[in-house]
Every structure is written in C-alpha cells, then in structure tokens.
Amino acid sequence: MDYASSDVRDAGPRGTDMPLPHSARGVKVVVVGGFGVGKTTMVGAVSEIPPLTTEETMTQAGVGIDHNPGAQGKNTTTVAMDFGRISINEELILYLFGTPGQERFWFLWNGIFEGALGAVVLVDTRRIEVCFEVITRLEDRRVPFVVAVNTFPEAPHHPVDDLRTALALSESVPIVTCDARDRASCRDALLSLMVYLSNLAAAQETA
Question: How confident is the model at residue 4 (pLDDT cuts 50, 70, 90)?
C-alpha cells in the first residue's frame, strides 16, 4: 500500500451538508512540508467534509526538474492546494489548506498563506532535509508553526532533542508525532498548534 494514498484510518462520517454553529469562529491553518511527506493524506484524513484536492498524475515532464529522493513510489502530486475543514468545538472551525510540496509550485504559497493563523510542518525522518527550506520560509514570514513527524512504518525514530537540533528549532516550537492516515492523530497535531498559538497570544498580552 502506498502510504501517501487516500487510504485513511478512522475517517468517520463526512458530508457537505454538515451545518456550522452560528457562533463558530473560522480560522485558516496551513499544512506544509516537502514532496511526499503526507500533506494531502493528512488533510483528507482529518477533514469532516469531502476534501478538495488538486492531485495530478506525475509524468516524464517532471524528470530532471522535480527532486524527489525517497519518494520514488509516489505517482501523483498536488499542483495547487488541498482544502478541508474540521470543527475543533462549537466555537472553533479550522479551514485546512495543504500546500504543494514540489519547489516549482511554491510560488502558490503567497496566496495560500494569506490570512493563515499558523501552520503544521509535516516531516518524514527518512528525508528530513526536504523540510529545511519550508521551515526557513515560515520563519521569514513570521508564521507560527508546530512540527509533526509523520510516522511512516519504515521511517527511523529519533529523539526529540536530536530532531530539534537537526531542524535548528528553538525550544519553544512544539514537536509532535502524527500518523497522517489517522484522523484522531491528525486532530491531536492540530490541537497542539492551537495550544501553541494560544500560549503565544497569552505571552504577548503579558509582555
């Protein structure tokens, strides 16, 4: 089974007719990462509505242009964005936007990040180098983020301190694990971002 496929665990019921509470506040969250780390899978797993995806079949046209080490088995790619929605509670609705991972589509990030409250950076420890530029871009844009290590079955496990050092992250940035196929696991990763953003806001208020 291709790990980055649409095969998800515990997806639960979905429907486009699910009503939103009138008092709910909607916020925009972006799921980012390098090529093939599981962004589309995560959005699809956690979304309570059928997700919008822009997956296209990869062709020979990308040979020599796209650099996809460690993801040779992947035959589709996001060319614009993924979109989903999840209700955290009756007061908070997250609108999820997944970014394209291949560098030639990164020009689309400008629009996707407009108005975003924060981001989840998905990391594949087999190819940790593909997220270096992603994190640099988030830091340059001053977008708060958490790092979610996608637990691919064959991926090596590293202590959190080692990952923090490899990614050059400050002690304040949360690092969590996440199975991008599992709805509950993805929801927990998003909740960690919400807690982090809340803590940042509280710190700014008391500063």
Answer: very low
Q: Please give the Cα distance from 180 to 110 (Å, whole number).
A: 25
Give this prediction's pTM.
0.78
What pLDDT digit, counting tens, does each position of 128-167 carry? 998 998 999 899 999 999 999 999 988 999 999 999 999 9
Q: List, as one string, the DSSP characters of 40-91.
A: HHHHHHH-SSPPB--EEE--GGGTTT---TT-TT--EEESS-EEEEEEEETT
- Taken in order 68, 74, 77, 82, is the CA torsion positive or negative? negative
C-alpha separations of 60 from 55, 57, 65, 73, 75 in Å: 16, 10, 10, 14, 11
Mind giving me the DSSP string for 94-126? EEEEEPP-SGGGGGGHHHHHTT--EEEEEE-GG
DSSP characters over 162-180: HHHHHTT--TTS-EEEE-T
Q: Is the pLDDT of residue 48 over 70?
A: yes
Q: Cα–Cα distances in Å, from 5 out to 2, 174, 180, 202? A: 5, 27, 10, 39
Q: Give Rg (Cα) of the chain.
A: 16
Distance set, CA 107 to CA 120, 153, 165 (Å):
19, 32, 28
- Nearest CA to 8 out of 55, 40, 56, 53 is that of 40
State whether residue 199 is helix, strand or coil.
helix
